[in-house]
Amino acid sequence: MRCFLGTKIDEDLIEKVSDVRDSFGSIDADIKTVRDQNLHFTVKFLGEIDEDRIQRVGSIREVLNDFKPFEVGLKDVGVFPSRDYIKVIWIGTGEGSERFAELMSKIEEKTRKEGFQKDENEPVPHVTIGRVKTGRNKELIQSELDKWKEKSFGRMLVDKVTLFKSELTSKGPVYEKIKDYGL
User: Fold this and answer.
1) What does the alpha-carbon distance between residue 101 and residue 41 come to, in Å, rounded to a whole number?
2) Can you give the chain as a three-state secondary structure string?
3) Which residues are annotated as catalytic?
4) What is the predicted pLDDT for the residue at 172?
5) pLDDT tens per residue across span 129-157
6) 144: domain range?
7) Is the Cα torsion angle 50, 55, 59, 65 positive or negative in sign?
8) Does this model's pTM top 0.70?
């Protein structure tokens, strides 16, 4: 099954995040937006794994024991890989981002030792709100990005990391919680 480790967005932030997401979804630029129930921080994408490897994911408890719950602010809107070639639109983190990035790095290190593939990029805590399907109307996207620059969207508590199963369907991905791992 296709799996990832993540942290869901607090319910009280969904409306604010949805407002930002919907502003991008309303422009004519071929953007597929993320549904409310799928808004999350990806801590580590695991890929296709079997039951044996699911058991090995549990080793992250060793990492999580070194972390106390912490708050993270949602702030700013950015893109991957660059403003000139936009594929992903995301909301980033403000206060608490260093702690979140540290958590992601430690989980990356631990899962790599358990035989999972290493991520190529440094961890950047973010919530994906849309994926750009074509490069059409890039200027509209850039203009919308400028509207949200340096805006804060609230704070949330990170107190667990969840193992999710991701099923790809014709209507988009469906995420199912497998297990929570508390900090």
Assistant:
1) 11
2) CEEEEEEECCHHHHHHHHHHHHHHHCCCCCEEECCHHHCEEEEEEEEECCHHHHHHHHHHHHHHCCCCCEEEEEEEEEEEEECCEEEEEEEEECCCHHHHHHHHHHHHHHHHHCCCCCCCCCCCCCEEEEEECCCCCHHHHHHHHHHHCCCEEEEEEECEEEEEEEEEECCEEEEEEEEEEEC
3) 40, 126
4) 86
5) 999 998 788 999 999 999 998 999 999 99
6) 2-182
7) positive
8) yes
| Mean predicted lDDT score pLDDT of the chain | 94
Question: In 3D, which of 170, 129, 164 has the Cα closest to residue 2?
Answer: 164
CATH number at residue 52: 3.90.1140.10
Answer whether 89's CB lies under 8 Å from 130's CB: yes
Residues whose CB is less than 8 angstroms from the CB of residue 178 and which lie 6 or more positions away in sequence, other chains included = 3, 54, 162, 163, 164, 165
Is it the case that residue 120 has pLDDT exceeding 90? no
pLDDT tier at 59, thresholds 50, 70, 90? very high
> Given this model, what pLDDT does residue 152 score?
96
Which pLDDT value is given to residue 52?
A: 84
Find the length of the chain.
183
Question: What total number of domains does the chain contain?
Answer: 1
